[in-house]
User: Which sequence fits this backbone?
């Protein structure tokens, strides 16, 4: 019996073309930082380096620490002294990135279905963003932090997708059991790995990411209408 459904955010509850989103996001951040002596190309490389460091995190520190141990070194700037710039960016500039994302009312419908059934929800979005950015993206999707028992950010997570330890950490933090959970996501490599822990999975194909061309026939899959039918049947 499924007691909790884990949802990915980007490309799942929040429709998007990831490449378009990243280009807009990075472009606005570079524009914010450039007047303060941050080389645009160097900034982008530093963001990717920090992201890679989080994805490879071994669990010894939170992802936030992993990112900020890496980003300043790559920029050659004392970025920790400029944290106010990043705070300003996420408050004023990042919300404009919503124009690069889609929207579906079905995201809120999915949450409503679970609430009616007394089934919990967890937002299992790859924790490479700070909480402020995750909350913005939730709002774009039409969902709220209080809709979820737990949601992952770079402040509260020590692993990233596709490491199965990311999902295990969610289970450890919430007291959930893998066999009572279902993971819903659009990325074959990052989201379907939850099955290795014993979770049921559903692959949402509306914004499908399948980098290795894996045969998806082995996973329950379909569009958002199919997902809503699946949730109603739980």
Assistant:
């Amino acid at each position: 019996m499924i007691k909790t459904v884990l949802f990915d955010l980007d490309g799942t509850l929040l429709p998007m073309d990831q490449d378009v989103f990243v280009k807009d996001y990075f472009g606005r951040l570079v524009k914010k930082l450039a007047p303060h002596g941050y080389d645009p190309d160097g900034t982008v490389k530093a963001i990717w380096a920090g992201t890679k460091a989080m994805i490879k995190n071994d669990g010894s520190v939170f992802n936030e620490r992993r990112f900020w141990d890496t980003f300043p070194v790559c920029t050659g700037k004392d970025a920790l002294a400029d944290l106010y710039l990043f705070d300003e960016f996420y408050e004023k500039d990042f919300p404009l990135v919503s124009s690069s994302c889609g929207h579906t009312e079905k995201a809120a419908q999915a949450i409503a279905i679970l609430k009616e059934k007394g089934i919990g929800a967890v937002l299992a979005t790859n924790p490479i963003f700070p909480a402020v950015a995750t909350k913005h993206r939730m709002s774009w999707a039409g969902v709220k932090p209080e809709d979820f028992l737990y949601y992952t950010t770079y402040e509260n997570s020590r692993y990233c997708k596709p490491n199965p330890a990311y999902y295990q950490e969610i289970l450890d933090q919430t007291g959930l059991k893998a066999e009572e959970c279902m993971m819903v996501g659009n990325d074959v490599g990052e989201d379907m790995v939850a099955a290795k822990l014993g979770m049921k999975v559903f692959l949402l194909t509306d914004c499908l990411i399948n980098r290795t061309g894996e045969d998806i026939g082995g996973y329950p899959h379909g569009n958002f209408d199919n997902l809503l039918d699946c949730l109603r049947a739980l």
User: Anything to note?
Assistant: Residues 43 and 75 are 6 Å apart (CA to CA). The two ends are 8 Å apart (CA to CA). DSSP finds nine helices and six strands in the chain.
